[in-house]
Predict the 3D structure of the following.
Amino acid sequence: MLSAMPLNKVQVPRISDAVASSLERRILEGSLKPGDRLPPERELATEFGVSRPSLREAIQKLASKGMVQSRQGGGTYITNALESTFFDPWQDMMGSHPNLREDMLEFRRMIEGQAAEWAAERATEADLTRLDQCFSTLTATYAHENMDQRSDADIAFHQAVGEASHNALLGHLSSALLRLMHDNIRLNLGELKTLPAADVLLKNQHAAIFDAIIARKPQAARAAAETHIDFVRETLAQTLRSVARRETAARRLSPDFSESTF
């Protein structure tokens, strides 16, 4: 008589693994961003319907991956681990090799064109609401000349487009690129003040991206995003030439070095 075949045991996931996976998903999709503080332990345990020890174990799993960290004074915060490996070495090289800015903008054109196209196809009502908020904030910054606020609003708008594409890798790459180019964006916006009608052009370009996504027109959204980056590339080139001319003029005003200096 044949003996009964042993049945494979069903692997039931640990509660802490399920909670860690849920938190990871929120980080990947951008619901939890670098610098965000996790809600208090009691609130999170109640939300997930788990015990506080299980929640602590889940958070420890994320900490071991470098995705969260505890800070002095209390609280657990999301790190930028998903972006820092891309961001850190390139940030240093951007300062030493200015020509990399052009390569970065070329890459940004490709990324943001695709992001806008997918956002027009995939954005949810919540995405569109956030885009509307970011666009309104950006538009309001044109009423004054605070370049830090305008730069932050510009980055927030483009990041909202990236996240509305619902591609986790593209969203995080877009975020890393925007952070990497933050100083260049601010410099470029400052120099644009000297160009006639620059503010109007920028407002119209962002409006074209926003309107195409809202209207669910993927190809128009891609074209609008690419047109915007092309404009940024050209004006950044003008900016760098303008800065170089000013630096040359300033050096000419400096006293000559004597031969004993060398």
Summary: The first helix runs from residue 15 to 29. The first strand starts at residue 68 and ends at 70. The two ends are 100 Å apart (CA to CA). The chain has two domains: 15-78, 82-243.
